[in-house]
Design goal:
Helix content is 70%, strand content 0%. The radius of gyration is 43 Å and the shape is elongated. The N terminus and C terminus are likely disordered.
């Protein structure tokens, strides 16, 4: 079943930050640069992809930060630094820069709204509500701000007030799609799924090409456990807007849940094109890459998430799992869990926290891996010994083949050898042994040697009964010369008189 926690993570509907105009790329000067030049360099980096086809937001942020350090009252630099930090997924940095930009120019609308948006995404909806409400006091007919206020109120769980804002918007504009879309989110947050679906359907009739509507309907189907219908809605949203962040995130997590890492990877990469700073997208992509065995890239993404959000438990846990179960680097796995404790332990992590169970599991996994390697090394050692033993047996077999061949050549026709079956058995063993030797079947040498150990003692036991040779008559070692009358050759003395 689809994880409800993932649904909660994925139903985040952000407001795109206001962007600045970006000039053509300018060269980055070596050494110290003026705040103005650093600002220009940062804008150029935002506009120009690197060799990998990606925008280097970290490098751009470094330029904007340099500009603010060189000129603390550089409001535009603070604004751009905040916007770039958002793209990096670092809401804390973004919030700090937007606040500094507003301290310099309290009327900077871009900083005001982007700050409220960051606060909403970070769960600080109350402050975001105050920002929007203050603005509406002087701009009561600004519908877009009222829609943003609805999102902040929903984040703050002030649902009744959010519905009232929706009514205000619809009084001003009865066909306002964003209002119905926000109503769908409000009812969804209250688990009123029927009402959520009705509002989404109404929004669809007003703007059939709005990808966000189809995404919202898909999320509702997920909660209602109708995954096929949800997938269809997400796919429709992606067809309407290939880079739609939420639709790609939702379909990506559905794909992850079913083990389709290839589809999940494609979805999360598209989500990151729409919003390079989405940590949910990076987390999903890192997990997908783990499934496609792209471990180095996966590890890099986990580090990016942790750098942007040092208290992101999921990133620490997933990075630890990557190294525990896949790269087998247990020191790294343990280090991530220890870093989580060190970065988060402000009274939140007690001795019973699950992180300590994970640490214990990593240590157990390391011990199990060490034992596995020990057994594997032992198997290799035994296998090598077996190979060496087989080689030795093969050499012994070659020697015994010659020994048996000589024995059978000499005594194979002996009557006792033939009648006992020794000749036939010996020939069979010899033939098999010769085949093994000719084919160099080293691993079979031991089996054939077993036959030799059985047959050779038997044959050697028969040999004495065969006399000095293998035939019926003895064959002298040297031929005798016959003299006249069959007597011994002249010149030799008789050792005893001949019997009559």
């Amino acid at each position: 079943m689809f994880n409800p926690r993932l649904i909660a993570l994925l139903v985040a509907f952000g407001v795109a930050p206001i962007t600045t105009g970006c000039p053509k790329k300018a060269p980055v000067e070596e050494g110290p640069v003026s705040p103005k030049q650093a600002f220009v360099n940062g804008v150029a980096l935002l506009k120009t992809p690197n060799k990998a086809g990606e925008i280097d937001y970290a490098a751009a942020y470094a330029q904007f930060e340099a500009a603010t350090l060189g000129q603390p009252d550089y409001g535009k630099a603070h604004y751009n630094a905040g916007w770039t930090a958002e793209k990096m997924g670092n809401g804390t940095l973004a919030e700090r820069h937007y606040r500094q930009a507003l301290a310099i120019d309290s009327g900077h609308v871009g900083s005001l709204f982007n700050l409220a948006n960051v606060l909403t995404e970070q769960g600080n909806g109350i402050e975001a509500v105050n920002i929007y409400q203050t603005f509406l006091e002087t701009h009561p007919d600004d519908i877009s701000v009222r829609n943003n206020l609805m999102e902040a109120l929903t984040s703050a769980q002030m649902y009744d007030d959010a519905v009232l804002q929706a009514r205000e918007v619809l009084l001003l504009d009865p066909k306002n799609v964003a209002a119905y879309r926000n109503l769908s989110r409000i009812y969804f947050a209250q688990e009123k799924y029927g009402m959520s679906q009705l509002c989404a359907d109404k929004a669809k009739t007003l703007a059939e090409g709005d990808a966000g509507i189809y995404n919202n309907i898909g999320v509702t189907y997920l909660v209602l456990s109708d995954e096929p219908a949800a997938i269809n809605e997400f796919k429709t949203a992606r067809q309407l807007d290939p880079d739609h962040v939420e639709a790609n995130l939702n379909l990506g997590y559905v794909a992850l849940n079913s083990g389709d890492y290839k589809l999940a990877k494609e979805c999360f990469e598209q989500a990151l094109k729409g919003d390079p700073g989405t940590l949910d997208g990076k987390l999903g992509l890192a997990t997908s890459l783990r499934g496609t065995k792209e471990y180095d890239r996966s590890a890099k993404l986990y580090d990016e998430i942790i750098s942007a959000d040092p208290k992101n438990q999921s990133a620490y846990y997933n990075a630890s799992t990557l190294h525990e179960k896949y790269t087998k680097d247990y020191k790294k796995a343990l280090k991530y869990l220890e870093s989580f404790v060190n970065n988060t332990n402000t009274g939140q992590i007690g001795p019973d926290h699950e992180v300590y169970d994970r640490m214990a599991r990593v240590k157990e996994s390391q011990e199990a891996e060490n034992e596995r390697k020990r057994q594997e090394d032992e198997k290799k050692r035994l296998a090598q010994e077996r190979v060496e033993r087989q080689k030795q047996q093969f050499e012994e077999l070659k020697a015994k083949v010659g020994e048996l061949d000589t024995l059978l050549t000499t005594y194979g026709e002996c009557e006792m050898m033939v009648e006992s079956g020794g000749t036939e058995m010996g020939m069979m063993v010899l033939e098999q042994a010769q085949m093994v030797v000719e084919a160099e079947e080293v691993d079979m040498a031991g089996d054939v040697m077993t036959f030799f150990d059985e047959i050779m003692p038997q044959l050697q036991g028969i040999v004495p009964e065969c006399g000095t040779g293998g035939g019926a008559e003895a064959t002298p070692s040297e031929p005798a010369e016959e003299g006249a009358g069959g007597e011994e050759a002249a010149g030799e003395e008789e050792s005893a008189p001949a019997a009559e």
